[in-house]
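Can anyone check this?
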Amino acid sequence: MRPFTRLGTVFFLLLCWCGGSVFWGQPPPEVPMTQISHIAPFARDREIADRFTGLAEFSIRLLQWKDTDRPSVIKAQRWLKSEIYKQTALGGGARTPNRAESIRMASDGYWSLESPHLVKIEVGEDIEVIAEPRALRLLGGKPYPLPVVLRNGASAPQTVTLKTTSRKGSATHSFRLLPGQVTGTYMTLHTEADSEAMPSLEVRAQGRTRPIPLEGRVVQAGRLKLRVLDEEGSVTPARIYLTGSDGRDYRPAGTQARVSNADYGQPFGGDYYFYSGGEFQVDLPPGEATLEVVKGFEYQPVSRQVSILAGGSGTTEVRLQKPFDLRRQGWFSGDTHIHPNVYNDHLIRPAEVRLISRAEDLNLPHLLVCNDVDSHINDRQYFQGRPHHLSGEHTILYWNQEMRAGDVNNHVGYLGLKTLVQPAYVGWPGTPLPYDYPPNYHMGLAAKAQGAVVTYVHPGLPSQYPADIALGAADTIDVICQRNEDVNTEHWYQLLNCGFQCPISAGTDAFLNVPYHLIPGAGRLYARVDSPLTYDAWLEAYRKGRSFATNGPLLKFRVNGKEAGEEIRWKTGSLPLEIEAEAVSHVPMTRMDLIINGQVAASQEAEEGGKLIRLIRELEISDSSWVAVRVHGEAHKLIPNDVALYAHSSPVYCYRGNRRIAVRESAAFLIRQIDQLIHRVETRGVFREAADKEAMLEWFRKGQQVYRKIEAEAAW
């Protein structure tokens, strides 16, 4: 039985949310927001995991107020994720804190949080209010979550009780705190729709009671009704950001709050948003609300102010414009790496995946079945070896597979599978498959035998992918992912410089069931399909490299009239090249680079405020080369998964006679990487038998020999 059933989820949430408190008078929380909460059931020490979970969930909710100090919240989320990984097999046996250390760490985390809406109270010899909330603006008849942090400043354990009172009744939370321990909770404040009476808050400890004044006022809400229309006037799903005049996030009842991720250094992480089918209504405080509507990269994003009148109700329509319509030119977008569910596969259903995909204007979300921290295979029930029946003309849902290996084997995506590849994972301690054998090579060949495209997801070196690509067991790597694109790009260039026609690839690794996570399709691959869109046609275009990857800019690129993925051949002498490239973007770009064999051959600055780049060049090459273009730009809110704007085409391949593209330094680089891989396996690999280890190393050496041959034959 899995440790994280639906019933177990609810019970777990109630425990971690209350921090061990007595629970009265407050509705159960929503789906857990953070990855920390989802991993906690797999931890070696649940008490420590629940303590970290409480802090993670408390802190992320502070970001619903725009003026919360984001760095304090983001810092807490990052180290909590690191610590909770250590508590499971994901941490690779790293040292974990003991219970006393975890109390200190969580306490420091709670006390470091800063928000003008936060109440901080220390209970020692006296009950001292360290920080009071800014004057509250409560909506009549609507609950308000008041964040409170408590610290035991006494030298002995004590029970501290918080109580809120209103005309609707009272709610009480009680906490048993050790000396110096800090915890946090949200106290729900209730108001009457027809009354201006403010609720009250009091603290009780050691027979003492102190009322905490709550300054502010109760206001009457106004109702916003919104319709989002596409370029043809039809209601369309979209990603919505909605901020009330009080600076707080709002969303329709029953809608899941989501938060843009900042775990990878994204400077604009921490924004609340939600997905809408295109029509909704929501109650907001009177004043100017800020509405932002985003739908993929081709639609013009919309940001506008909406006036909300107390007691009023009005309908607003947002008619989206689509100045860039790539579908009409045969280009369709895909994300190679999405997980509808990880850790708990009962939260996101296919209909929700379809809604999110349409909201992001993502044509092909590749949905990857994978193992968990344990041996459970998430979403296996949705795998059919063909498009799901909820697929439509321009949105194709296809469950595929990620082979998530342990410490030395890396993670690989198989796209276009007819049957799941076995083993589905290797190298996971505490599971039936704890050993690092077989190598990815075997599973890659099994996937390719079905006609699948094999890509290494979130790649990093040392890795098995240089050997697998050399031996024909893998096709490429995800250049756009949550890892650093500049590093991934340089590693991808080394493969291209060794003559491998590796198409560019892009996968977000978005977990749809974790609200504070990466946004699906925020990095995506466009592939050109000549025929009407089908899954097989798109996959073949992806395999051939008729594509570009992007987190915003949209590219056109030709070399002597040839597009990405095509070849140019000539016999002798030099080859004149006529380069035509263009990039358009709703997010400002800075420049486009023309890349030949990994080197910048020319650059062009952006114009029209960064919205357009045109690069026209004539030059010559004298030997076999690959040619591509890339685009750079600064960080932006509309680039939510990454630290900077980025786009890159797949190459056009130019061959002089029978000469392959071969750069000696690139072959030497990959030889060294396989040496490091061999060392990692020799020192860290776990094998049932010595023969398995030697067989695995033999495959790596065979791959290395391919690069040694390239190095020896390279002309430069």
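Reply from J.R.: I decoded it. The chain has a mean pLDDT of 93.
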